Amino acid sequence: MNGVEDGSIVALRRVEARVEPYDWSFATERADEVAEYWAKVSAGKPTMFNGRILLQHRAAIEDGVFQAGYFGADYAAFLAWLGLGLPAPAIRNGFAMAALRAADGAFLLGRMGGHTANAGRVYFAAGTPDHEDVLPDGSVDLAGSATRELCEETGLSLDEVVVEQSWDAVIVPGRVAFMRPVRIDLPAEAARALMLERIAAQQEPELSDIVIVRNLAECAGFDMPPFMIAYLAHIFGRQS
Questions:
Q1: Is the pTM of this model over 0.90?
Q2: CA distance 180 to 50
Q3: DSSP line for 61-120
Q4: Which one-letter DSSP state was computed for residue 132?
Q5: Domains in the chain, please, with CATH?
Q6: How far, in Å, CA of 14 to CA of 12, rounded?
Q7: For residue 114, how far is the Cα from the chain centroid?
Q8: Dihedral angle at the C-alpha atoms of 47, 141, 133, 150, nearest 10 degrees?
């Protein structure tokens, strides 16, 4: 993929993504393995839903613009693809994250609830894009995905935050995390208390807690994906 190198973090002016026809051979040729894997990971989690999501099959970065093509796939096939070690052909989960930061400079991350596929993991509000994120012209609204997930997971509203226009793409095998900086004009503890109050009122909250991270060393105390640690190291290092 042109200019999209694993292990890199790239500042972007814009992300341009579109839904395109694509035949993902893994999902059809290994359908039995997909079904077996889904049965294993969804056991005891009746709220897990095998819906349709969007995955990325092509990508290129030119002049600060990330250009990508997406196709529809079952969530079960996606989880099996991850669990079986990212078998070829090469695709990526290209998702947007709201990198929420408090007025005192601390980051605010969510801990996933026990009923979710990633129970206990800690990262920014996010979700793999799906057809709700597709606009009438066929483009994928990753900016809208980031803010929608933020509001759904934390209970915050858009008028309580400031969303910046820049992106940082964190590129790792099988994933591109499009980080969009978001600020809330409250100190971290007050922002956490507000979000926990809103989460407690939700019928089926995705998050079990809000985690405050003030420096890179604190990341070691949480079950945090490597791409999250890489991003936080990049931001904290840039400011040191």
A1: yes
A2: 27
A3: EETTEEEEEEEEEEHHHHHHHHHTT-PSSP-BEEEEEEEEE-TTS-EEEEEEPTTSTTTT
A4: G
A5: 8-239 (3.90.79.10)
A6: 5
A7: 18
A8: 30
